[in-house]
Design a protein that fits this description.
180 residues, mainly beta, 10 strands, 9% helix
């Protein structure tokens, strides 16, 4: 059975398509996957919309531009304030997140699990400052534009022992090479 969040994500993909995802992947255009009455009330996020946990502060990434033919994976934080918090393109670009207000680039170090659109269901990355990022996603339904990722987790860890796990949802696919 398809959950409401997955339905909203698929609907956003159908409306935007991956070729139009640039307009939807971030800012006010991020898919709204919340629904009144979903589960217990959660504490309100900080006014900035950042996700915080001890040594980490995840903030929203700006909209991402994929080149024609490029594949990528977009992950959003969960409601009540869905925010684009992760993007991974091809191997040359690795992954990017906004941590403490700065874009941090991660180089892919390990992959396992199912392969899809130049991504994997289990991936590990490392930043230039030796911050480790482990990404795990569940594969969902295929659409005309790509693949839904109904659930997943980002695990950030630092050498000093601080660790944060953030639940995510997302999409993956490739931009049509015939569209500018």
């Amino acid at each position: 059975m398809m959950g409401f969040a997955t339905y909203k994500l698929i609907r956003a993909m159908a409306i935007c398509g991956l070729s139009g995802l640039v307009a939807c992947a971030g800012g006010a255009g991020a898919p709204n996957v919340s629904k009144a009455g979903d589960g217990p009330a959660r504490p309100s996020p900080p006014a900035s919309g950042d996700l915080s946990d001890e040594g980490f502060r995840l903030a929203e990434l700006p909209p991402r531009q994929m080149a024609p033919g490029e594949c990528g994976m977009f992950l959003w934080s969960l409601p009540p304030q869905p925010r684009l918090v992760y993007f991974s393109g091809d191997d040359r670009r690795g992954a990017v997140m906004n941590i403490a207000g700065a874009e941090v680039r991660f180089a892919r170090t390990e992959v396992s699990g199912d392969a899809f659109f130049q991504q994997y269901s289990e991936q590990s990355f490392v930043s230039p400052t030796e911050m480790r990022l482990d990404v795990s996603v569940a594969l969902g339904e295929e659409t005309a534009s790509g693949l839904t990722l109904p659930s997943g987790a980002l695990r950030l860890s630092q050498a000093n022992g601080w660790e944060m796990v953030a639940p995510v949802t997302g999409i993956a696919g490739c931009r049509n090479p015939d569209r500018p």
